[in-house]
Specification:
The protein is α+β, with helices and mostly antiparallel strands. A hairpin with a 2-residue loop joins strand 8 and strand 9. It is elongated. One of its GO terms (cellular component) is plasma membrane.
Length: about 475
Amino acid sequence: MLSINMTFPADYAPETQKQKAFDFEKKLLSNSDVTDVILRMGSSAEDAQWGQTTKNNLASIFVVFKKGSDIDQYIKELKKEHKAFEPAELDYIKTSYSSSGGGNNLQFNVTATNETNLKEAATIVETKLKDMAALSKVKTNLEDSKKEWQIHVDQTKAEQLGLTPELAAQQVAFLMKKSPIGEISINNEKTTIIIEHKKENITKQEDILNTNILSSINGPIPLKDIATISEKKLQTEVFHKDGKETIQITAEASNEDLSKVSAEVNETIANLDLPSGAKVTIAGATESMQENFTDLFKIMGIAIGIVYLIMVITFGQARAPFAILFSLPLAAVGGILGLIISGTPVDVNSLIGALMLIGIVVTNAIVLIERVQQNREHGMETRDALLEAGSTRLRPIIMTAITTIVAMLPLLFGQSQAGSMVSKSLAVVVIGGLAVSTVLTLVVVPVMYELLDKIGRKRRSRRKISTSTETPDI
């Protein structure tokens, strides 16, 4: 899948923005490899409620392709036709269904107790982020400004000519806007008559000052007789979060390892000397990634709890299931080593792989310990039961690990297509975690089982001694 950000100049007319965006959408759909195009402009009331507003001059476009499409070539072809969609800026981000949707775009919200500290803090953060090699296209919403001509009416001069500032403003507004002045009937159909000043005649301040307005004393007079004009830059959008004015800073991570870049950015921001009361919060892709990570960690915790509960019910005791759980840290070590060795970044798919490992690794340990329990029931000592189970269950455990690893190899060495539901990181975590845990499970889990068994026997012996001591002689 391809995510496209289409950014227009801040003073670009909304209707023209829509038309340009619709034209671009038609261009995207004209390609036979494209199956769906989703176009989104502006923000809804629900977005504002959850603090997820976007710029009004931004169109977000998501393009879904047929399987096997060459997205890189498609982007190259689109870039050749950029002139047709100027002055819009187009940014392309390859993404997938399982991603947060924000690609590598980072967003930071700066708040402060007053406007002076707010702008100072935003400048400090923006400057520091621009110095980071891993970030590009760093800018604030303060840059999205437009020029405005402000007309200042001299009240004394206006009154001398029988005008008030309000009447002068109304006449200027009438000349600058489309104004209905009546209706006529054409072929029995009513048509509204609209009067509009030619925009081509107003290109500079002098054109407005030379515009005539009506006064009750001198009739038509040029506006310059009673007014002056000044130019001022104004923000097109003002953001508020939790009732506080907020400056948004956006950037694009040039590195595909978004988690690594986010960690570097967080450390950089934490070490900044900001004005009193200033605060920086993270939004955008980083915030979505952190939320996804938090949710998956919660799910993994719940999964481990459920697995342990089921094993306790099945085995009828807590000792054997507790020993089995020691296989999970081994899988985590293997998964982390796999990511480090392969240089694969941590993402949502890698955590999904870790979630899969919980079931796979625990199953192997259960196969081993279940055999040990059977041997114990037949009167074997703990050490002998473990040795026999290890030799008997070695083949099925190894076979399970090998078949799972082989099944993951196509995903590991294949080329991931944008839009795929899985990625290389999932395979790396599963293969690494399973390889390490399979080897160490045959050592660590039996050791922990025997250790817990010895502790249990000692406790039972102490209870027997205590009971025999307290029993009175007859």
